[in-house]
Amino acid sequence: MIPAQFDPKSVEKKWYDYWMENKYFRSTPDHRKPYTITIPPPNVTGVLHMGHMLNNTIQDVLIRRARLKGFNACWVPGTDHASIATEAKVVAKLKQEGINKNDLSREEFLKHAWEWTDKYGGTILEQLKQLGCSCDWDRTKFTMDPDMSASVIKSFVDLYNKGMIYRGYRMVNWDPEAKTTLSDEEVIYEERQGKLYHLKYQIEGTNEFVTIATTRPETILGDTAICIHPEDERYFHLKGKKAIVPICNRIIPIIFDEYVDMEFGTGCLKVTPAHDVNDKTLGEKHNLEIIDIFNENATLNSFGLHYEGKDRFVVREEISKELETIGALAKVENHINNVGTSERTKAVIEPRLSDQWFLKMEDLVKPAIKAVLESDEIKLYPSRFNNTYAHWLNNIRDWNISRQLWWGQQIPAYYYGDGKEDFVVAENIEDALILAKERTSNPNLQTSDLKQDADALDTWFSSWLWPIAVFGGMMDPENEDFKYYYPTNDLVTGPDILFFWVARMIIAGYEYTGEKPFSNVYLTGLVRDKQGRKMSKSLGNSPDPLDLIEKFGADGVRCGLLLSASAGNDILFDEELCNQGKAFANKIWNAFRLIKGWEVADIAQPESSKVAIEWYEAKLQKALAEIEDNFEKYRISDALMAIYKLVWTDFCSWFLEMIKPGYQQPIDRTTFNKAIEMLEANLKLLHPFMPFLTEEIWQYIADRTPEQALIVAEWPKIATANEKLIADFDFAAEVISGIRTIRKDKNISFKDTIELKIVNNENASTYFDSVITKLGNVSSLEYVSEKVSGALSYRVKSNEYFIPVGGNIDIDAEITKLTEELNYTKGFLKSVQGKLSNEKFVSGAPEQVIANERKKEADALAKIATLEQSLVSLQ
């Protein structure tokens, strides 16, 4: 027996287990054309949030549709080791247990990290199953799997041997909380209110001072020069002189360089080569001393004098007071400036000189630029992101790929001596020993003499190989899987990682395979709350996706999210969206129950049912064409809306009404079978969006073998829609709506039959007269040549429809009511036309206001014509 209500809880696990048991998600190479998606691997530390839900629902829609269309659909899941985030969580866990990371060896720490990963790492993937994601779970990859790590190391060695990776002492972005360097793309700039401190530096041997403004007074302890423009006449007398740094009393040279802007501030610049990238350049040019005043956690070191061990921001407050006390602080002003923060830890970034590994990008990016911006080989949806992509790649700098972390792939550089250049790069220590022996001409070297670089590689350097490495393409490019599934088809991700990940995967794809890694990139928007705020734990405005699934069902949540998720545009999320999805599921369920509840008999098919079936087949084909077009353009939300309208309005509201048998009457078998056929077509279209509901109904309709399950059914075949039939019904629908309006307005029971007389000025088709007769409960439908008196009337275009009223209504009262409405409308029209005849109003009012007034005039004129016709008909 079919349950009265659709209960998501009772069906979701049942059908997911059924799909898994029958290996519908599993993909292996065969004769079919592949359709492949690799999941943007969520952090292994993560749990499902609204962004994941949106992103993965879209991927599941694409993969399920491909499966229905006969492709060999392969969706590869996996997780990312997320070096910074995961290491931070493990360090925090150890701290709670009274363990300091610094007291552990690398091997001991990694043991804890793997234990943590094994315990929590699969959480998000299990949650994706509750959403209905049809990933090939047998292919699940982790960026720290042995084969994945081997691919990363192979990539590093290859690029190093090509001369594209180098080690350099550079100014880098330092995250003092994570205690690691970051790439430029991992630094987020925020506008913050700060202060501008004007400091006085005494000229050595004189009572003269120069004033210099800085936002970071604590860095004066690392000053090694004052710089002035060589053409600044105000300071010609200072050439060859020196200045005294306040507090530390260091004597520093006054240098002259065109880098300084004479018009900015006082025209004098303090130079701190260890803590500013531009100062570093000046320092190299003028051979200045480099003094690093910070520890790795951004506390001051011994160069900080009596501030040693204190945090930089504490020192900023304290040193400003000391400067004021000694008379070295001229003034302090409020100042807004851009502050770089860590994308991961949110800590304020500290520029720091450090030995790091870099990847040369200038030549690597050229194929990636061509693929997206010139050849259109890879398409971004929406295309407006092409400009963002172009700006980044055309202004790219060398990529800092080393991180001062233990969790991640350890850099395969092996040191055999004390010098910075005393190293070799190899995939393993055995190969490194061979190279080191060759380099040193020392046959007695042993592996114990080699020391591997302590740094790990940037997580993005691992994940840029994702589409290649998940199929083993780095280690064995001739393997069957890689040759069959690569390049993949679609990538669905957020625009926030367009630089970090998407562009880099494209770069890696062309570098290692000579091919694109994917053809299309669908960039989703952010999920925001009703107030437009980004969802976050701190704001408490992000619902738990699993709570939503519990409340509305996975299908309801998927549908609700996607109804408003146009590519690249942010979603203003409201739970009402999920409620709308739930209501849609209930609508479909009730339509199915209605059909299955009809008694079926071998009787003649009514003309109205025959016509209804022809019409719905035409509507289905038209909708299918629209749906296919939307999918081609990656307008997933529009595709769902087209299905929503087809099912809710055309199928449930019109088609089922048109074929519904009379009270306690059976339906003919021909119509019933067609109704089931149309319902099944709807289910196929809906399945990618609402997989659980549709499979449940599909399996209720008939006993199906596993080979006949909806998940592997055949997508409806597209054919040319009968546009004339659709247009004729649209006209007939207006006729029916007119009848229903009159019945409602005049309180004529829908149980009572009426007569309908038509003046067919439009020469409208009579094909749907049987439907009009049925849905309008019309006892007789007659075409006449002139108006009918003593009747209620309405128009559809120029056609006139008359319903003789007889004793159903009080004609005199109706005439009075219509006359009052006519007089009111004429008065309204007069006031509108008065405005439009006023030249001052027309010339001065905004264009939109004038357009609104003209529309009011047109509407009033049309209403007057209808009211006058109705009065004539009644008299």
Mean pLDDT across every amino acid position = 92
How many distinct helices?
27
Helix content: 40-55%
Instruction: State the end-to-end distance.
Output: 57 Å
- Low-confidence parts lasting 5 or more residues at pLDDT below 50? none
Number of E strands: 31
Quote the beta fraction: 15-25%
CATH homologous superfamily heading of the domain at 545-721: Isoleucyl-tRNA Synthetase, Domain 1
Rg from C-alpha positions?
A: 37 Å
Biggest sheet: strands, sense, closure?
A: 7 strands, mixed
Structural shape: globular
Main CATH class of the domain at 545-721: Mainly Alpha
- Classify the secondary structure makeup into a structural class: alpha/beta
How does this model look, in words?
With 875 residues, the chain is α/β, with parallel strands linked by helices. Among the domains are: 155 residues, Alpha-Beta Complex (Isoleucyl-tRNA Synthetase, domain 2); 177 residues, Isoleucyl-tRNA Synthetase, Domain 1 (Orthogonal Bundle), CATH 1.10.730. The chain is 43% helix and 17% strand. The chain is built from 27 helices and 31 strands. Strands 7, 8, 9, 10, 11, 12 and 13 form a seven-stranded mixed beta sheet that branches. It has a four-stranded antiparallel beta sheet with strand order 6-5-14-16. A hairpin with a 2-residue loop joins strand 30 and strand 31. Helix 1 crosses helix 22. It is globular, with a radius of gyration of 37 Å. The two termini are 57 Å apart.
